[in-house]
Amino acid sequence: MTLIAGxxxxxxxxxxxxxxxxxxxxxxxxxxxxxxxLVGHRPQIGQFYDVFLxxxxxxxxAATMKKPLIQLGQVARLAVADLHPRIxxxxxxxxxxxxxxxxxxxxxxxxxxxxxxxxxxxxxxxxKIGRLVAKVAFEEELAEVAxxxxxxxxxxxxxxxxxxxLKIGSFVMIDGxxxxxxxxxxxxxxxxxxxxxxGERVKARVTFVREDGRVNLSMNQRxxxxxxxxxxxxxxxxxxxxxxxxxxxxxxxxxxIKQKFGISKGAFKxxxxxxxxxxxxxxxxxxxxxxxxxxxxxxxxAPASKPGVSE
Length: 311
Prior knowledge:
Elements: E1 8-17, E2 21-25, E3 30-34, E4 48-55, E5 61-64, E6 75-84, E7 88-92, E8 98-102, E9 119-126, E10 132-136, H1 139-145, E11 157-166, E12 169-175, E13 182-188, E14 201-209, E15 215-218, H2 223-239, E16 245-246, H3 254-261, H4 265-277, E17 281-284, E18 287-290, H5 292-296
Parallel strand pairs: 13-15
Antiparallel strand pairs: 1-2, 1-4, 2-3, 4-5, 6-7, 6-9, 7-8, 9-10, 11-12, 11-14, 12-13, 14-15, 16-18, 17-18
Helix pairs in contact: 2-4
């Protein structure tokens, strides 16, 4: 039998060696379980115990009675405990020690890499020289542990963790709660309000439940809801402007609209359209101005610019 790091094995206590701990055996090989790795009562010589095998700080295989959050070849979601700019992220694996997620496993863009507190779906593996290392779990591995989303999720808001971010969009493992590991979802690029980090916690709305149990997601409100919120925000903004006018209209570039109001140009045009239909504003060239009715209308104070109010 071979002692394999990253696995749980049932081994026998062969002998105690003070001040180190207990040597355990599979009948052929021995491994040290340090006193600091004991859980519960002192083990008895000749008895068998389930222990997890790992590499200690000197790269020697060792045993522990502590329960890891992940086993070799398994998928788990682990929290980022620490970061090293040249090595990678260190993940909490439940043993009082951390597991390396190398930079090579992370996005090239620094702003897309996980931060402390993020939670990354990974697989426990061995690196080229046999040490334990975390590898990012992708669609194939996550599909095996995900459950099919129920149709009742349509148009509800859910939360989950980003498992992968691409130019076309971001993949998310939605929190499964009491149902299990989670359901797999995708936020298309046009439905993101910003770029998302690997392992970031994100809240999104289910726009479509697919036949295969996966879901399409959006970080935006439904257009009807967003249009009302955006129009109220724009009206409040204009009421605080001198003479009730602003140099923004249908002709304004999308980048300026996004920067100023935190919404897309499409959402801006929908909100302006509502205000004009209600007789509250009028457009004159590149300017939008309040009408007398608009100046008299009540509006909540404009909140700070918030990216992605609607799309």
